[in-house]
Design a protein that fits this description.
The protein is 36% helix and 37% strand. It has one domain: Nuclear Transport Factor 2, Chain: A, CATH 3.10.450.50. Strand 5 and strand 6 form a beta hairpin. It has a 6-stranded mixed beta sheet. It is of the alpha+beta class and 152 residues long.
């Protein structure tokens, strides 16, 4: 798969989250796609992803993603892996919520010329015993978040 196309689909996924649009987010998954959230909760299939996120967006003040794609690689014909780092920007003060930085692995599959998410895995970026790695990741994500802040 063309890396730019895979990255574009990933950006659409983040944009749907940032708009708090559960249906658009879920539509980017295969029917039986799997999303594993930062807290370890699992959503099985497009319908459960849409339902769960609709409830989350209704009941919680979710932040928006700041992300940096680390790479895209083909892992089999019609299957690609995207790796990224993400942070969550508070909707109240535009600051990065440092405790929820994560790495994301996203498996994309191609079918009939369309690409969809088969697996989204978010893993806390704790980097136990390596505070310098956690700090570097935070600094990078803060710069991305800062570039999106409204100018006064």
């Amino acid at each position: 798969m063309e890396p730019a196309r895979v990255e574009s689909c990933y950006r659409q996924l983040l944009a749907a989250w940032n708009r708090r649009d559960a249906e658009a987010f879920a539509a980017l998954f295969t029917d039986d796609g799997l999303a594993v959230a930062f807290d370890g909760s699992v959503m099985n299939g497009r319908a459960e992803i849409a339902s769960t996120l609709s409830s989350v967006f209704l009941n919680e003040r979710t932040g928006t993603y700041a992300a940096s794609v680390r790479g895209v690689s083909d892992i089999a014909p019609g299957v690609a892996l995207l790796r990224a780092i993400v942070g969550m920007v508070s909707i109240d003060n535009f600051d990065l919520s440092l405790t929820i930085n994560a790495t994301q692995s996203v498996v994309y599959v191609e079918s009939d010329g369309d690409i969809k998410v088969a697996l989204l895995q978010s893993t806390p970026a704790a980097f136990h015993g390596r505070p310098e790695v956690a700090e570097a990741l935070t600094l990078e994500l803060e710069e991305i978040a800062r570039s999106r802040r409204p100018q006064h």
